[in-house]
């Protein structure tokens, strides 16, 4: 049932600009560092002479949490907005498919879309390093960690944003919360590493990466289940 809902959701997002967002986000992050390294190439190569790949990945990693919070916010809002724009909630929920399948399908859709975007970030990072002439071997494992580890630690934000986006017809509330989280996240690093907005940062770097990734997965699933229960009980217009 969930797979039927997921397949239908993939069809619904065609022509809605969501795939363009999934592509543009990693391009934007890599383009920032292309400009950064392009303008200061000699200086940065001296600074990262021992590990130019590590320097490139480190510079990109600084902006990944902000991009993730914005991505979770916009993707969730756009996916939920499709149903509101078409005023199709009543028709959808009248079909012989459970609300659990509908909600799970939309969560899976958002998760898959953001996973694709994170994988593209890893690929584009490697491509940029090759363009700059960085030596082999390619740091494939590290680039995959750059894309995926922070995302897994940020799953609570995705679960929260989808819950809010499906609960409010006016998307201003969830979007405002998501943008605020993205803006605040760089300053949150002054707080405890266990402050939730810091999880994507420490899920990628630091000695306890696994703890933050596991915390993201567990808390993300808990919030997802709470949202699912609320969705099952809520009247949707």
UniProtKB/TrEMBL annotation:
<protein>
    <recommendedName>
        <fullName>Permease</fullName>
    </recommendedName>
</protein>
<feature type="transmembrane region" description="Helical">
    <location>
        <begin position="20"/>
        <end position="39"/>
    </location>
</feature>
<feature type="transmembrane region" description="Helical">
    <location>
        <begin position="146"/>
        <end position="166"/>
    </location>
</feature>
<keyword id="KW-1133">Transmembrane helix</keyword>
<feature type="transmembrane region" description="Helical">
    <location>
        <begin position="173"/>
        <end position="191"/>
    </location>
</feature>
<dbReference type="Pfam" id="PF12730">
    <property type="entry name" value="ABC2_membrane_4"/>
</dbReference>
<feature type="transmembrane region" description="Helical">
    <location>
        <begin position="211"/>
        <end position="231"/>
    </location>
</feature>
<keyword id="KW-0812">Transmembrane</keyword>
<feature type="transmembrane region" description="Helical">
    <location>
        <begin position="59"/>
        <end position="82"/>
    </location>
</feature>
<feature type="transmembrane region" description="Helical">
    <location>
        <begin position="109"/>
        <end position="134"/>
    </location>
</feature>
<keyword id="KW-0472">Membrane</keyword>
């Amino acid at each position: 049932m969930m797979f039927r809902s997921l397949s239908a959701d993939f069809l619904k997002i065609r022509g809605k600009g969501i795939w363009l967002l999934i592509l543009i986000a990693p391009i934007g992050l890599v383009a920032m560092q292309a400009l950064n390294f392009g303008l200061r190439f000699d200086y940065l190569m001296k600074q990262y002479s021992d590990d130019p790949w590590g320097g490139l990945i480190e510079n990109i990693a600084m902006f990944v949490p902000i991009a993730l919070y914005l991505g979770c916010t916009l993707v969730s809002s756009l996916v939920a907005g499709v149903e509101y724009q078409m005023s199709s909630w009543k028709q959808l929920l009248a079909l012989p498919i459970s609300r659990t399948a509908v909600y799970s399908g939309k969560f899976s859709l958002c998760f898959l879309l953001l996973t694709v975007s994170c994988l593209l970030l890893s690929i584009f990072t490697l491509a940029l390093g090759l363009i700059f002439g960085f030596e082999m071997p390619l740091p494939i494992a590290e680039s995959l960690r750059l894309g995926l580890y922070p995302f897994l630690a940020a799953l609570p934000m995705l679960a929260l944003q989808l819950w809010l986006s499906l609960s409010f017809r006016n998307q201003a509330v969830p979007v405002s919360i998501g943008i605020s989280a993205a803006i605040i996240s760089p300053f949150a690093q002054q707080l405890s590493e266990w402050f939730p907005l810091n999880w994507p940062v420490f899920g990628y770097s630091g000695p306890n990466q696994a703890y933050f990734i596991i915390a993201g997965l567990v808390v993300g699933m808990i919030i997802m289940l709470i949202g699912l229960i609320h969705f099952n009980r809520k009247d949707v217009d």
